[in-house]
Amino acid sequence: MSAIPYTDDVLDPTVSLLQLPDVAKWLGIVVTKVHQMLRDGDLIAVRRDGIVSVPEAFFADGGVVRLLPGLLMVLRDGGYTDAEILRWLFTEDETLPGTPIAAMHTDAAREVVRRAQAMAF
Fold first, then answer.
1. pTM value surpassing 0.90
2. CA 85, CA 57: separation in Å to the nearest integer?
3. How far is CA 70 from CA 34, 52, 108, in A?
4. What is the pLDDT of residues 66-86, one digit of tens each?
5. What is the rounded CA–CA span in Å between residue 50 and residue 91?
6. CA distance 54 to 40
7. CA angle in degrees (0–180, nearest 5) for 83-85-87
8. DSSP letters spanning 1-30
9. Residue 50 belongs to some domain of the structure
């Protein structure tokens, strides 16, 4: 089986991360399913202090934030690297309620996806 994909930690040190076993517990699945989600591109992991982890902001209500896997696919298809995607998701945007990832937790989620589609082309 292939290695677990991760990218450089380009996030602010204050961004809260969940280790993969914690992600599995949060989602109510086995950790190998989390590995598969990373390989499938449904999530992005970073390596911080030698530990592969996923931003806590990717989760809500016992699951992955709605529309996040599709948003990641759109941006990757548009040529963005995982590091670039993370930078964009966690950078303040004065036209949104905070950062794009924060907006994904609100009614503005579709607007974030629309912007990602426009960026990708």
1. yes
2. 14
3. 17, 22, 15
4. 999 999 999 999 999 999 999
5. 24
6. 14
7. 70
8. -PPPP-B---S-TTS-EEEHHHHHHHHTS-
9. yes
Angle at Cα 38 formed by Cα 33 and Cα 43, nearest 5°? 110
Confidence of residue 2 (pLDDT cuts 50, 70, 90): low
Would you place residue 119 in the very low, low, confident or very high pLDDT band (cuts 50, 70, 90)? Answer: confident
Taking the CA of residue 12 as centre, how many other CA atoms within 13 Å lie in the half-sphere pointing to its CB?
9
Q: Is residue 56 part of a domain?
A: yes
Q: How many domains does the chain have?
A: 1
Question: Do the domain assignments include residue 43?
Answer: yes
41: Cβ–Cβ under 8 A, 6 or more apart, which residues?
69, 72, 73, 76
Strand, helix or coil for residue 63: strand
Candidates 93, 90, 43, 49; CA nearest to 70 is: 43
* Domain limits for position 114: 17-119
